[in-house]
Amino acid sequence: MNVLAVSTPHSPDWRWRIVDYVGATVAESPGGFASIAEAVAAGAVHLERLSQQDRAQVARHPWH
Predict the structure, then answer these.
(1) What Rg, from alpha-carbon coordinates, does the chain have?
(2) Helix (H, G, I), strand (E, B), or coil: what is residue 19?
(3) CB 37 within 8 A of CB 3
(4) Domain map of the chain by residue range?
(5) What would the DSSP string read from start to end of 28-58?
(6) How much is the pLDDT for 53?
(7) Cβ distance 4 to 19 under 8 Å?
(8) Which of 8, 21, 40, 58 has the highest local Cβ count within 10 Å?
(9) pTM for this structure?
């Protein structure tokens, strides 16, 4: 997955968006950020949390 920063004319603040490798949106920040760097950094933290949750679920449900 990738973290992107997006801004639109309607909402000029920067938001992070997590997309999968097909380009589908997985998650988007609820609030805006003043800079691209702040948005991407916050999105990276959120992506790491999602990854940790996924790993914890796999650990609880072994394949055998």
Answers:
(1) 14
(2) strand
(3) no
(4) 2-60
(5) E-SS-BSSHHHHHHHHHHHHHHHHHHHHHHH
(6) 76
(7) yes
(8) 40
(9) 0.77
Q: Which two tokens stand for residue 59?
A: 């650990």
Burial of 28 (0-12, 13-18, 19+ CB in 10 A): middle
Confidence band (pLDDT; 50, 70, 90) for 58? low
Amino acid (1-letter code) at residue 21: Y
Which amino acid makes up residue 28? E
Q: How does pLDDT run across 5-49, given as a tens digit for each residue? A: 999 999 889 999 999 999 999 999 999 999 999 999 999 999 999
b/e string for 49-62 if b means 16 or more Cβ within 10 A? eeeeeeeeeeeeee
Report how far residue 38's alpha carbon sits from residue 29's, in angstroms, rounded to the nearest whole number.
12
Distance CA 3, CA 20 (A): 9
CA distance 34 to 13: 6
